[in-house]
Design a protein that fits this description.
single chain, 261 residues, alpha/beta
Length: 261
């Protein structure tokens, strides 16, 4: 069992996301520790990129702030190495193919191994074109996390069958961001995934409240929250440690509560 899959072994997992370097890398390190203290089972760290096509306005603005603060991929790796001296929680990068390609696949995944980064999510890497990246990542023990959006059952099962680490289930079409209502038939998606794979599946995109965490997470092994956390960081800046801790704690508790529909 990989370290990522281990995060799901004690019940439903809460996965929190933040953008590295927003508002600066020193604060990011403190916020990661706050998320860990609040009960996050797995932490997603966004490597900032100028054109994050899967992100809504909240995370787009976080990327802009991080880049303006001078955040680079090398600096993110160094920050994670510092964090790794303090926590054992699985860490997954989220970034786009261009930064990884520009850095060099071999060099990038070697640095992931050195910094004990357990996986990577690349939203603009199509399933049909992932093999070249996966082969190199596998050499360095890094899981390439597959994303599954609402689509045909046949395609869902095909992607699920090859999954590593965990499956990132996209709750609805479009970009990331807080949503008041999600109408996707997630139960059918969960059933299709279970037919093809035993890899844990976590649902994300649009989840921000404890009720959404309980309801939408009912059919899955975990819940992913990004924009709501990034919004808190935007609001509180360098003073966001306690608000993020309290929010993650509340959402972790809700993720573990059986849904009452």
């Amino acid at each position: 069992m990989s370290k990522i899959q281990n995060a799901f072994k004690n019940g439903k997992a809460f996965i929190g996301f933040l953008t590295a370097g927003d508002p600066d890398l020193e604060t990011t390190e403190k916020l990661i520790l706050s998320m860990d203290r609040g009960g996050a089972d797995l932490i997603e760290i966004g490597i900032p990129f100028s054109d994050p096509i899967a992100e809504g306005e909240v995370i787009q603005e976080a990327n802009i702030r991080a880049l303006a603060a001078g955040t680079t991929t090398d600096k993110v790796f160094s920050m994670v190495e510092n964090v790794r001296k303090k926590i054992q929680t699985p860490i997954v990068f989220l970034t786009y193919l261009n930064p990884v390609f520009f850095y060099g696949y071999e060099k990038f995944f070697k640095r992931c191994q050195e910094a004990f980064v357990d996986g990577i999510i690349i939203p603009d890497l199509p399933y049909e074109e992932k093999q070249e990246v996966c082969e190199i990542a596998e050499v360095y023990g890094v899981d390439v996390i597959s994303m599954i959006a609402p689509t045909s059952e046949e395609r869902i099962q095909r992607i699920a069958k090859d999954a590593k680490g965990f499956l990132y289930v996209v709750s609805s079409m479009g970009v990331t961001g807080v949503r008041s209502e999600i109408n996707t038939d997630l139960s059918s998606m969960a059933a299709a995934i279970r037919k093809a794979s035993n890899v844990p599946a976590a649902v994300g995109f649009g989840i921000s409240t404890p009720k959404q965490a309980a309801d939408l997470g009912a059919d899955f092994d975990g819940v992913i929250v990004g924009s709501a956390i990034v919004k808190l960081i935007s609001q509180y800046g360098r003073e966001a440690e306690e608000p993020v801790y309290e929010y993650v704690k509340k959402m972790k508790e809700a993720t573990c509560v059986p849904s009452v529909k």
